[in-house]
Design goal:
Largest sheet: 7 strands, mixed
Radius of gyration: 21 Å
Structural class: alpha/beta
Distance between the termini: 63 Å
Helix content: 25-40%
Number of strands: 11
Order of helices and strands: EEEEHHEHEHEEHEHEEH
Shape: globular
Number of helices: 7
């Protein structure tokens, strides 16, 4: 962890300032130490990686997949290769297409949630320069260590941290783009995670998220039934109801053999603008008066 990153991180619970205590440093890298909030919450830094996971006792699904990824990190990429090959898809092409949606510029601040072993991280890093910042958050240390190894030579300011997507240790409106692919269905608090991804993104930033989900027109076909039988995560439906009110220009795609959904949106401010008091021609009332007066629409 870079020394200056202590000024960026905040308490994942309260979003308050954290104080850095250094036990071991190498150059500008904090190797061992801790970050402490004003209310006494402490987060360790071990082998250069801050552990900002909150809460300490994870909810069931988060704990389950943290353990699964810690145990299976070494075999994870073999499974990815099989997945792409089974759909006759080329990984680089699919991943590049997803990252294209972020409209990255070299000096942007980018957050990747659930970076895994770094397959998408490498593509993101190539779009950034030494002036850009790339924060890589992962709930599994084993996965994060593999990702860190892949990005050793990447010419970008990069920070690796352990964290929970639903309780992010960043200030409001810090990032120019936020990306997550491949874990949304397993989050114990999916809506909260999407709210957090939006909170830490600046107004106008792009958020891209996706995961397994067979589309409606394929669910009852042999294709869909076979996938869902093999992996129940394919049964998940696209979680449009969990998007924040401020989501703008929402686009939905199904990619990777039409078996994964992908959502992209820009971050706006609050609800969409509308003049609720503009008189309705020939009616003498407005949308607001119709709602609060409970007048039947169309009359």
């Amino acid at each position: 962890m870079k020394m200056k990153s202590a000024e960026i991180y905040c308490c994942p619970c309260l979003h308050t300032e954290l104080m850095l205590s250094v036990a071991k440093v190498e150059g500008d890298e904090v190797v061992e130490g801790q970050l402490t909030s004003k209310d006494g919450r402490s987060y360790k830094i071990e082998r250069g990686i801050p552990n900002l996971i909150f809460p300490d006792k994870l909810e069931a699904s988060d704990a389950e997949f943290q353990d699964k990824y810690n145990r299976g990190a070494a075999q994870y990429e073999a499974g990815l290769d099989w997945l792409f090959n089974s759909f006759f898809e080329e990984q680089e092409t699919v991943r590049t297409g997803m990252i294209d949606l972020l409209n990255l510029k070299p000096d942007m601040r980018v957050l990747e949630i659930g970076c895994g072993t770094g397959k998408d991280s490498v593509v993101i890093a190539r779009r950034l320069s030494g002036a850009g910042q790339l924060f890589l958050l992962e709930i599994s240390r084993s996965m994060l260590e593999i990702c860190r190894g892949k990005l050793t030579e990447a010419d970008v300011q990069k920070e690796f941290l352990l964290g929970n997507a639903s309780y992010q240790p960043f200030p409001d409106r810090y990032f120019d783009a936020v990306f997550h692919f491949g874990g949304l269905n397993t989050f114990s608090r999916r809506k909260r995670a999407l709210d957090e991804m939006t909170r830490v993104a600046r107004i106008g930033a792009t958020v891209v998220v996706g995961d397994e989900g067979v589309p409606p027109w394929l669910r009852e076909k042999p294709f869909g039934k076979i996938l869902i039988n093999a992996n129940p995560l394919y049964k998940h439906q696209i979680p449009l109801q969990d998007l924040p009110e401020c989501a703008r220009n929402v686009q939905v795609r199904w990619i990777l053999g039409n078996s994964f959904y992908l959502i992209s949106y820009q971050v706006g401010e609050g609800a969409p603008r509308i003049d609720l008091d503009l008189p309705i021609p020939g009616k003498g009332d407005s949308l607001r008066s119709r709602y609060y007066g409970r007048r039947t629409s169309g009359t």
